[in-house]
Amino acid sequence: MTDAPPLELDLDEIEADFTHCFTGECRVNVLPILHKIGHVSTRNADLSALLAIILEVMQQPLKMRRGMVMLYDRHSDTICIHDSFGLTEEEKGRGIYAPGEGVTGKVVETGKAIVVPRLNESLDFLDRTRAHAERGSANASFICVPIMRAEKVLGTLCAERIYMSRRLLDQDVKLLATIASMIAPVVELYLLENIDKVRLENENRRLKNALKRRFKPSNIIGNSKPMQQVYEHIRKVAGTRATVLILGESGVGKELVASAIHYNSPYAEGPFVKSNCAAFPENLVESELFGHEKGSFTGAIATHKGCFEQANGGTIFLDEVGELSLANQAKLLRVLQERSFKRIGGVNPVRVELRIITATNRNLIEMVEKGTFREDLYYRLNVFCITIPPLRERGSDVITLADHYVNRFAAENGKSVKRIATPALNMLMSYHWPGNVRELENVIESAVILSDDGVIHSYDLPPSIQTSHESGTTNALSLEDKLRAVEYEMIVEALKNNNGNVGETAKELGLTRRMLGIRMQRHRISYKTFRTRVTDALD
């Protein structure tokens, strides 16, 4: 009798045998893979190799859309994505949480798995990676299980997939929990050996992500045609080393544009030093810009590095450059030409390699003609010019910015303000905004504080916007006119809330249906304007 050949474990063959379970719900095909994971984790402590296997299993046999292994750094109290699939590097960099924050933070805080059957139904799912903008994500389920060792949470194993069967979802929760417990010893050893490295990587990722989120051009609010041209200029000049002059009225966001240029430029890894030329006393401008040696003048008790020296290897932003005196303009011109200077009281020249961005709200050409600004300096600064349009020329950007500030200040003040009423929007659009974006920001912050019902109304806006002089209207409103305006606004808002249902609107306003009909006729309001498509289809 011939001896039978030894059995060989063929993972592909075993997987094929169990892929076609008639219910479509079995996970028998991953049993050999669990064996492989256990084998790798016991033979060596290479976390990278182990995670490569796990993520591949999640992506292929388990057909997950996204998978993440997150590690918890107890010293900085942060949870960051260590490895993943289905996420870009930018999305991965945004995935930073604190214990108790979002689904991942709650898993770390409690040490218990959390299952979100539908992402769009969970208030805890923060989508900090911003990877769920596509419509299909709303139907996906999210699983997050803790990686624990001796009742200590080391991180999480999370996955996302669309499930047609609750049974299969439950099976995957148990499966991921099993995998998490198997890799826990390797994760613990990795954290012990690399804790400083993990902390530095996480902090570096957090800072870079914060800077990109704050300063990248796409984060400058507004999509109007004038702003699109500004974005295009930023994109073209950012990758060069050219000197940039930014022009625009006060409050339009010149510093924000300068920051966007720096953080998308070859100097992005260097410092970004901001200096307001109008804020320095005349006798201290040279010291602030170029520095001084100890004892060079009364009060110079120590050597001071000026803004140019501090910005070496990066970018210096000189705001309000039009306020410099002719004497200081000459000194600035010399630095632009030679890229070197001497500190006050110094003898050795200091050489710098940096990018210079300047800004002003003054008309430099007129100043050159009047002799108050050096012509040669103007042409040195005006290598590449970006003019930021005033808010009054940006059309619908007013509404976009207003909505942005409503969300921001509502969150900061713990209020549930959701939107701006139509009459208030009309008022914001008709105002000429002499203080530009900075003024709009202040107006919305004040209105959010005043709002009592989750909506910003026209009467929540400051008097300067409501008056005929400031809004550009010709006739001042009488008391009767203002009462009519408030009545009109309340009727419109109630009709919106009730999809044009006159009966429900009358009930909300405390009126009879007949009284509401008379007032709607007086204001020429039609309930049909506020009907949704579904309601219209039923009529």
Summarize the structure in words.
It holds the Pfam family AAA_lid_14. With 539 residues, the protein is an alpha/beta fold. The protein has helices spanning 11-19, 31-43, 47-59, 89-94, 102-110, 166-215, 225-238, 254-263, 285-290, 307-310, 326-338, 364-370, 375-381, 397-412, 422-430, 436-450, 463-466, 468-471, 479-497, 502-509, 513-523, 533-538; strands at 66-73, 78-85, 96-97, 114-116, 141-149, 152-161, 244-247, 272-276, 315-319, 340-341, 350-351, 355-360, 384-387, 419-420, 455-456. The strands form four sheets. It has a six-stranded antiparallel sheet with strand order 3-2-1-6-5-4. Helix 11 crosses helix 13, helix 19 packs across helix 20 (502-509) and helix 20 (502-509) packs across helix 21. The radius of gyration is 31 Å and the shape is flat. Residues 1-20, 468-476 and 533-539 have low confidence and may be disordered.
